[in-house]
Amino acid sequence: MVPFCSRMLAAAEFRSTVGSLANHCYTSGWVEVLAGCHSGKLSKARSLRQARAALVAAGALGHRERLRTLVLQGGTEALDDLEMLELLLCLALPRCDLRPIARALLARFGSFPAAIATSVAELRRVPGLGDAGVAALKTVQIAASRLARAEVAQRSILDGWDRLIAYLNTVLARERVEHCRVLFLDFQSRLLADEMITRGTVDQVALYPREVVKRALELDAIALILVHNHPSGDPTPSGDDWAMSEKLRIAAGALGIIVQDHIVVGNGLCYSFLRRGFFRSHVIDS
After folding, report:
1. For the chain, where are the alpha helices, taking DSSP H only?
2. Among the listed residues 127, 83, 124, the one whose alpha carbon sits nearest the alpha carbon of residue 104
3. Helices 239-253 + 209-218 axis angle, to 10
4. Per-residue confidence of the chain (286 residues) as pLDDT tens digits?
5. What is the model's pTM?
């Protein structure tokens, strides 16, 4: 038998929890929980657990409302990486306690940008995230990439080095293996296409100049910029990078196509063959 005083304390705790929850009933689901408690359809122990869970959710709702208000008022700089992840994930996982998931993402990947740039396979290993959460994170990465690309595509590449580097960093800086991309340009150095030509390993990538030149002819491109990343974060070119540049310049030059630059992307750093004086072409202005 449960002592009388213990039963009284449990009942008081139950009433207190339900009373607190009543002030936070924003969804019909929570109202149904309370209705079940009072109608006797649920055991008091089960009802108490559900009431406590709903109360936690109510507190999370208030926290999310504060984050939304900051965004709507233009105060996004006040949001740290943890809060950014929480706010983003609440759109995909509205009824979950998101702080543990957001903390797990930061613990594993280190930052908000690194989390959204992580592969789908790695994100799926984060407990509680699920496909809905993964899709939300990857959607933000795609949106950021498209915004950066739009800035580059709207004008001549020659007019905006900073915009170009911002775009390349968005697309490549946090990739875990080497990717080789080519920016195909028209006669005004405007972007015709940005295409990934090949995907390699953590420290090398193969390039086939013939395929690049063939694609440039299909697009009527008169110039191109070769781009690849170094997952190590150090953009210093290797011997293979130099050889790759020279082979492409020879193959493209034979058909009158100019290789304007070869850019190696590290972690927030870039190495430009043109800007280091190794390519003779038009210098891209800042």
Report:
1. 4-22, 28-39, 44-72, 81-92, 99-109, 112-117, 120-123, 130-153, 161-172, 209-218, 239-253
2. 127
3. 40
4. 445 444 444 444 434 443 443 443 333 343 333 344 444 444 544 554 444 444 444 445 566 777 777 777 766 566 788 988 988 888 888 877 888 999 999 999 988 888 888 889 999 999 999 999 999 999 988 888 888 777 777 667 767 788 888 888 888 887 888 899 999 999 888 889 999 988 877 667 778 899 999 999 999 999 999 999 998 889 999 998 999 999 999 999 999 999 999 999 998 889 999 888 887 644 444 4
5. 0.60
**Exposure string for 159-169, b = 16+ CB within 10 A, e = fewer:** ebbebbbebbb
* Strand bridging mode 191-199 / 179-185: antiparallel
* Residue 129 DSSP SS3: coil
Tokens encoding 49 = 């657990």
> CA–CA separation, 247 vs 235, rounded Å?
20
CB 241 within 8 A of CB 280: no
Output DSSP code: residue 118.
Answer: S
| Calpha distance 31→126 (Å, rounded) | 32
Query: What gap in Å lies between CA 124 and CA 228, rounded to an integer?
Result: 27
HSE-up of residue 184 (Cα within 13 Å, Cβ side): 18
Residues in the chain: 286
